[in-house]
Amino acid sequence: MLKSGVYYFWIARTYPWGDIGRSITQWVYVGLNNHLCPQGDTAFPAKISNITRQPWGYTCSSSNYFDSETKEGFEIEKQLDLVRKAIDEQVQLHELSKLLLPLEEVAYWSESLHQLLEKYLTIERLSYDIGLKKKCEWLINFIREHGIDLHKAGLRFSVDSYARGSDWRVNVKMPFYSLDPKTAWVIQRISIKPKSSGSGRRIQRNDVVLYYPVFKEVIPNIEKIVNLLGISSEIIERWGSL
Amino acid sequence: MGVTLTEQIIVEVDLSIHPYQGIIGSFQTQWTSWLEPGFIYYFPRDSPISYNILPGDIILCEKEPIYVCDSGKVIMPIKKFKPLDLIRYIKENPDVEILSWDYPGRSRHFLEIARDFFRNKEKLSKTDVFEKDDLIKLITSLIQISQFNTENLLFPHLKQQIYNSIIDTLDILFSEACLEKICSLKDDLSAYEILALVLPKLFFSFPEYVTSATAYKKIKTAIGKKITIKEKLTLIENLFVKDIENWLKTNSSDLVNFDLLMESNYKDLAKKVLQIRQEEVRNAPVIFKGATKKQYDISQLRETTLGKKLINNLKIPERKKWIEQEVFALIELAFKKIGIELNVIKYVRPK
Fold first, then answer.
1. ipTM
2. Residue A207 falls within a domain, yes or no?
3. Partner-chain contact A189 B15, CB within 8 Å
4. Is A67 in CB contact (< 8 Å) with chain B?
5. Which among A217, B1, B83, B102 is least buried, having the fewest CB atoms inside 10 angstroms?
6. How many residue pairs bridge chain A and chain B with CB atoms within 8 Å of each other?
């Protein structure tokens, strides 16, 4: 059983490129008191998402929390120097990852490391945004070239009426018959995922923002969906206009 | 002669779920039921070609990754293949590992099938000892290739070129080499297997053809005859062609690859297929009733290969036996354009 105190956690999958940048994702620390302490280690990660309500929708797994007491014996400063140098040179994400893994293993975190990673991530985010723009442009061309029409393919989009807060999602009604391979491939790559139960699919609110130009191309009632989700300002911030 | 470069792999590029470092191409495998890629191969930004890699591209990469984690690898691209370049590479490196994905509904991807074909064909020309198992492998490759179609492919262009290139290699030398191996075999092959190996273009052109027992017996006798390989080949070819003609007369199969037939040595057979199909239509009576507002019974026309095709294209419901004059006029016109006069007969009420 974990003692009460301050624990650090790696927040994996915080950034949109997924696990490839796992070890430079942000850390979060959580102060636990006796009341919040779980009855066993395995029960703990599930509690985390209940008590913190992280805006990025992360669900903790049992493999990524560390007791801060295990820091001792590791040459943190030496490793930090390597990280600093790598960030100055803006090395690639996977290279930086290698250098951060030892720090992750001992659950090290500090304000200076936070600032270093912020600096790195700002540049990386720019590069991600360029890629996202290219991806959307490419997909739109592909959709036009092949005459893909999600509406005609039988997909219907609506927002959950019972959804609230950060859980708002777009519901996608699927036709009974299977989709043609091109349409299926497109919807897979703009993050339309099957629901955990029942038929149909769902799109995360954030994915509508990320792939807005593509959704705009293929969903006739996108304006209504944007209004219901309340994401117009986020779209304008990312894409310049609606 | 090429040497297998086991330190290189060929990757067919997919569209990345998350563009990594601004690069939109990646290769995703092991999709989960949540439609998340289970394992991703990324390209690093340090390669000069990474930013030009797009979905559908076929890339030669270093096999040894520069980074590995639980959910992915970063692999260094070496070059983007042009079609002929890719074919040459596969021929020279028949053991190269290929990571491809664009072949929905099939367990084997076309690039792998093509690689295996070139490997098996290479063995045919280089090896003296060619066992039945080797022939079976070659037949399997040919059967898989014969099933190639671009209908459901997202990126068909390059694969079509590879397919064409394979077809080009199925020449007379290939047929002779195969026949020579068949003659040296102690075991018998089935008619289907002999056709696939000795006359692959005919085999690809008539996927539904079944050899008659009489023809098969004659083909086996021809294989056993003490004549040259060239003579045997001509004999077997004639037997197969004649049997296919007979088969066409009794089977209204519309599964004929005319493009291939027209490009092959069997152009006459293509014309014959058309003649047989036209004759079928001429022999299928269309009965009409009514004087001013005529109605036509197309049930017999529907039983012919060409009639069925046209009627389906006009989206006439399958259960509909009698059709209106306006619709029939379209059918009549379409057949007239290919030189067929329909056999229209007035309905006579049974006494």
1. 0.76
2. yes
3. yes
4. no
5. B1
6. 91
